[in-house]
Amino acid sequence: MQAGLLVLLLGGGLVILALRLRSEAARRSSARAGYFDRIAPMMRDLRRAVSPTGFARVSGRIEGIETDLQAVPDTLTYRKLPALWLLVTQPAALPVSQRVHLMARPRGIEPFSAFDTLPHQTLLPEGFPHDATLRSERPLSPGDAALLARHRAVFADARVKELVISPKGLRITWLADEAERGRYLLFREAEMGRTPLAPQTLAPLLAALAGLRADILDEAAAERKCA
What DSSP string runs through 184-218? Predict the structure, then answer.
């Protein structure tokens, strides 16, 4: 009798646990797929996708500029909490001569970047973050160096991880979320992105890219005028 009751209680507990895990998985899936739901109304010609990680990806025009937003989880960290990176990309051709990546605190295993594939590394002058590294396809021209110096304030936000300037467009990578320390250390749970990205969070990143793009185009126009 007692053995049967114990089996019944254990079975009921397992059913409750299974239902709870299923509910949490559904909630997690919904949160990830809806991560950009508050941003989507800002976009014209909106296109939606879901990455293999379950996180949303959206593309469209924001204030006339083609913009692509991705949320990339990074769980390949060592002695660091898992992180969720927001990639804000504006894939429009620009009159620059090469691809340049400025990375804060590079670890060599960033899943969102081709930083390590670039062959040339430049020693950064005073005024740039001390823990940042600059890599490019070739040595920087004076114009490249001056452009970066004018926009180094992008890294005043400690959550900015990378700035990419290339002939194909611009990108800022920003730390959107980190796993909760206690749950991760105890249970190895890395739940991130539970709250949709807010428009006011995205706004300063878009403003930084807009300023950089305008500077590049103004410089190119000035060079053509002088030629």
Answer: HHHH-------SPPPHHHHHHHHHHHHHHHHHHHH
Quick one: tokens of 185? 């250390």
- Examine the pLDDT at 214 and tell me if it is beyond 80: yes
SS3 content of the chain, % helix, strand, coil (to 5): 40, 30, 35
Q: How far is CA 175 from CA 18, 72, 73, 143, in A?
A: 33, 10, 10, 29
**Alpha carbon distance 119, 140 (integer Å):** 12
The tokens for 45 are 């010609």
pLDDT per residue as tens digits for the range 8-26: 555 555 444 344 444 454 4
d(CA 67, CA 64): 9
Question: 151, 215 in Cβ contact below 8 A?
Answer: yes
Domain map (residue ranges) of the chain = 34-226
Cβ neighbors of 98 (< 8 A, separation 6 or more) are: 136, 137, 138, 144, 166, 167
In angstroms, rounded to a whole number, what is the distance separating the alpha carbons of residues 16 and 20? 6
- Name the residue with tokens 């959206």: 58
Q: Which single residue is written with the structure tokens 């508050």? A: 38
Judged against a pLDDT cut of 50, whether residue 106 lies above it is answered with yes
CA nearest 65: which of 196, 222, 209, 200?
209
